[in-house]
Amino acid sequence: MSSRATEVLLPSSAAEAAALYGDGADVTVIAGGTIVMPSLAGGRLQPRKALVLTRAGLAGVTRNGSTTTIGATTPVQELVGLADPLGRCAANVADGEIRARGTVGGNLLAGHGADAPRGDLQGALLALDATTRSTGADGEVTAPLEQFLGAGNRLLLDVSFEEPSAGAFAAIDYPHTHAYTVLAVSGCRAKNGTIRLAATGLAGPGARLRSAEVLAGDPVAAGMAALDDVAFANDAVASSWYRTKTLPVLVRRVLVELEESS
Amino acid sequence: MNLSVNGIAHDVESAPLTSLLDVLREELGITSPKAGCEQGGCGACTVLVDGQPQRSCLIPLVTIEGTKITTVEGLGTPNDLAPVQQAFTHHYAAQCGFCTSGMMLAAYAYVENGGTEDREAIQGALGGHVCRCTGYVKIIDAVAAVARGDAFDATLTAAGAHMTNLGGVQ
Lengths: 262, 170
Prior knowledge:
The structure holds two protein chains of two kinds. Chain A is α+β, with helices and mostly antiparallel strands. Chain A has ten helices and twelve strands.
């Protein structure tokens, strides 16, 4: 166990967490622990500083009018039951015991796994056009999730979105307790009628399916067009070929569900 | 750091990022939580944290100060088994026993939270737990029995045969 040599930082507020995080150099962030702990216990990760967010006051779901804000250390389980696509997307993450520990921030920022895709919630929150509030080298920044996911080391504080008029979710499940998502598509219709789609289970982070969005009125054509927006990997849970064949199906299901909910 | 396990307060000295599983097994000698996969995939290490089943292998010690930890030792005693323990015994829901403590705690929480005998709901509640003896049918039978509130004669199995080799149960 490497933690005897690790400086453990335990902030008691968001401001203190931001100060201790600084520019993120040499800092390993621990929220629920579900991703970090196996690496720590196995000696594959030996952090110089561990920023433990348990008491930083970053957990909780709040609503202000039509805006929902989710704190970075909110357990994934607390999203189960929220409106789709987020509610069903959250329910599709691992099992209840993992969801009770794993946090929204950890799920969004886990980085791509070596053997399987991670970051299930990226898809639902990209479809919701969510906004992130984070801190890092240049202080606190508010930015679209899509931009945040490519921004490198930052400490997520919360993520917020405007509630859509309808949401839908479809996924290929993998029948194992780890339940890594092979491929998932989230969709929503914004209050102004705009359709947004996003996928996870890709070669990199989750991505918007903009080519499919412009063809949303034709679910079959949109499904095929979605292939232009993504790249797939061959990994432990599925081949690139399989994902290529199934993405159009999932896109079609989500669009049909959105259509039927109107 | 102070850690409450089965109602007993312990002063523990393990490093702050030590897993709760290691603290329980290595420092406190409570060996019912099993070190299976040690990456959250099997459920053998599950304990209750403030009544909620969670994987102890994934919990850093520093994050659970002030919580109440329960292992199967905290559910009942050999002479006064909790209903879920009686049900697992009665229905032969344990074979090698490695998954049993985690299964029992998940089942206990399921029933405590109002879970019914619906087999699909039970499978959902126990979905993170792996039994390599392929004993799921009897495990689900046992959880359904507890959810129904069945009473058990600890000297009989579900098939009616006398139990002769379970020291401490009678």
